[in-house]
Amino acid sequence: MDGFLRMLPVVVFFVALLVMGFMISKKSADAAAKDFSKEYYIGGRSLGGFVLAMTLVATYSSVSSFLSGPGVAWNVGYGWVYYASTQVVAAFLVLGVLGKKMAVVGRKVDAVTVIDMIRARYNSEPLAIILAIVILVFFTTTMLGQFTGGAQIFSGALGIDYKLAMILFAATVIIYTTVGGFNAVAITDTACAIVMLVGMCFLGYAIMSNGGGYTNITNTINEMSATARATGEGNDMLNPYTAAPLGLFVTQWMLCGICTIGLPQSEVRNLSYKNTSAIHSAMIYGTIVVGAMMVGMHWLGVLSRGVLTSIPEGASTDTVVPTLIAQYMHPLVAGLTIVGPLAATMSTISSLLIAGSSAIVKDLYLHHKEAKGEVVDQGFVRKLSIGITFVMGLVAVLLGLNPPSIIVWINMFSFGGLQTSFFCAMLFGLFWKKGNATGALLGVIGGLGVYCVTMAAGWRIWGMHQIMYGVVVSIILYIIGSNIGKPIDDKTGRLFFPEKY
């Protein structure tokens, strides 16, 4: 009976997502018949402020926000909350810095993807192809972590086999994303974001009630910290610098703060909203919700140490949240709570699937056909887009059947690779007239190369994450290349910098 009660809310949620996906697909059929790629990949540029904010938040909030992050906070203490607080500015920066200019130029060049913007700005086919491949590689890596995390939550909290959990979870998200496209992703992301907040509240209540209240929980953590200081064993959970030294904290501002404007899955949202009022309200809604979820979930991770004082030896901290849900909550409430982290995972996967599919269909295949002057049937584009979206999801699922250890590090690696590649290309491309294809190519190749080599070798200076080396090298090479390369032509200059002409 307990298993049924836990499963019931999850099944209802999964069915609701599938129904929404099919309904939205049917509703947008007429628009898709005219221009399938625009409707499927950016929702016909029709998002309002609240939906824009929620889809951006849900895309940014991943399984690590509800599983790995709180698990690490359970282990190391308030230092990880301090570390996570840098993410509060993410939505504000993506929309506030890039939003208006991407929307204005995107409409002029009829851009459907981030790569469309890159092509229009730099007129470089090699750069566009390289960045499309970067999207595919790092999106697949990120989806691997998301599918794994979702299946772990499903399996651990509901007590079912991991592979069965993976199949049920993956089938739901792949089907509604494949069928509904961007509009389905945007609407379901909104539902997911709301469910995330509700799930976080349920989890917080369970921690407080099972831990005997905030005072008792804090006393337990104080005792653990005192023991750690006296014996030198374990973490001083009250010292924010224990887990997040200054160098790592600075790079966290880059990785999860400033450089989030270099995430293509977030950037593409700037091509999808309908007017200026929408982006202004989205900046406010998005910042509030991101702050509540990122700081709130990591804070609950620390407080959960007052309830779950230990985990089995050798177990990953990723098991902390599923264990809390399974052991310390009423079955029905546990089922409702499980939907929160599952929603975070599904919303991230759906956005990555759509953006990854667009890299193949729109940025590579359709561009190649258009360059040859060929007209492609919209019915074929529909079938190809749906097929590619499905195959991408299937590949990530197959890779996730043998799960990696700690998902948060997979996400951070993927984030760093994407940001190193797109940060300069998009930011400098939109706001620095002198930037050109030579600078962008050098920045992408050099920065990404340094990032991957230092990650593989494990090299760090002053505790800084390797993204610092990748981004710094990318900026330097971009500036050098832009000063020695061929300046942009007048047509591109008037398009991106009309105030200078």
Short description:
The protein is mainly α and 501 residues long.
Could you characterize the architecture of this molecule?
The chain has 501 residues and is mainly α. The chain has one domain (2-70, 82-211, 246-306, 321-412): Sodium/glucose cotransporter, CATH 1.20.1730.10. 78% of the residues lie in helices and 0% in strands. It has 22 helices and no strands. It has helices spanning 2-27, 29-34, 36-42, 49-60, 63-76, 78-84, 90-109, 114-122, 125-158, 162-210, 214-231, 240-243, 246-255, 264-267, 276-303, 320-328, 331-371, 378-400, 407-431, 437-457, 467-484, 490-496. Helix 4 packs across helix 10 and helix 16 (320-328) runs antiparallel to helix 17 (331-371). The longest helix has 49 residues, at 162-210. The mean pLDDT is 80.
Walk me through the topology.
Layout: H1 2-27, H2 29-34, H3 36-42, H4 49-60, H5 63-76, H6 78-84, H7 90-109, H8 114-122, H9 125-158, H10 162-210, H11 214-231, H12 240-243, H13 246-255, H14 264-267, H15 276-303, H16 320-328, H17 331-371, H18 378-400, H19 407-431, H20 437-457, H21 467-484, H22 490-496
Q: Report mean pLDDT, rounded to a whole number.
A: 80
| Termini Cα gap | 71 Å
Uncertain segments are none
Can you identify the CATH class? Answer: Mainly Alpha
Q: Could you tell me the radius of gyration in angstroms? A: 23 Å
Number of helices: 22
Give the topology string: H per helix, E per strand: HHHHHHHHHHHHHHHHHHHHHH
Instruction: Tell how many strands the DSSP assignment holds.
Output: 0
Q: Please give the CATH architecture.
A: Up-down Bundle
Helix content class: over 70%
Main sheet makeup = none
**The CATH topology, please?**
Sodium/glucose cotransporter
CATH superfamily: Sodium/glucose cotransporter
